[in-house]
Amino acid sequence: MNTVSEILSYITDVAPLHWQESYDNSGLLVGDANALVDKALLTLDVTEKVVDEAIENDFHLIISHHPLIFKGLKNILTDNTIGRIITKAIKNDITIAAMHTNLDNSFYGVNRVLAEQLGLKELNVLHSNISELQVGSGMIGFLENEMSESEFLSLVKEKLNVAALRHSELLNKPIRKVAICGGSGSFLINDAKHCKADVYLTADVKYHDFFDADNEILIVDAGHFETEQFTKQLFADIILKKNPKFAVQISSVKTNSVHYFV
Length: 262
What we know:
Blueprint: E1 2-3, H1 4-14, E2 27-30, E3 36-37, E4 39-43, H2 48-56, E5 61-64, H3 81-91, E6 95-98, H4 101-104, H5 110-117, E7 121-127, E8 137-147, H6 149-159, E9 166-167, E10 175-184, H7 189-194, E11 199-203, E12 218-221, H8 224-228, H9 231-242, E13 247-250
Parallel strand pairs: 4-5, 4-13, 5-6, 10-11, 11-12
Antiparallel strand pairs: 1-3, 2-6, 7-8, 8-10, 9-12
């Protein structure tokens, strides 16, 4: 058995909590840091179904990427989703933690595993926003061989298992230098252009943001869940590397809130 704080320290060794953005709420959110646990359930989001899964399988620690408690709470009531989740977790001695933008900003975090899925090499942080080497937002790298825009879009669709892609106007230029940011990354479009990337892959791109491509770069929106889905396995890899005997399980609940009619 390990304490919750010991298990979380495996992740914060790679992505310290002080690397999180000022608006974020990473770390232990519900429960006791000194509680003893023998396994952890890993998820991108904490939903009521995820908590039910933890209860059914006797998990007392849930580690998610997105914080369950993100905005300020004035009450915890069972007539709303977050209130029900927190109440159910406390009643069943379930501890909940989140590792969000601290893991986004780590060189060994969310964007690295996304880059690896796409086969990118020579990786560097796209925008260094913390005064430490290779710590910051997004990532940039190179495909082993250049490909056409349609070939790249097909690669993304296949590797990320995306039902549909949104993108800016095709420029009929080869793709080799690729900038990425898992999750909401519109704020890095100009960084990707400044680095002379051929394409910028991210999510949650608004209508007017696509105009910022300005015939200089291809902008691709592959979906928030889709670009961060590998974070669950990343949690598992980090924990097992530190403690091979600790049991981890990736949640079977698909928490993507976006559905496609194709």
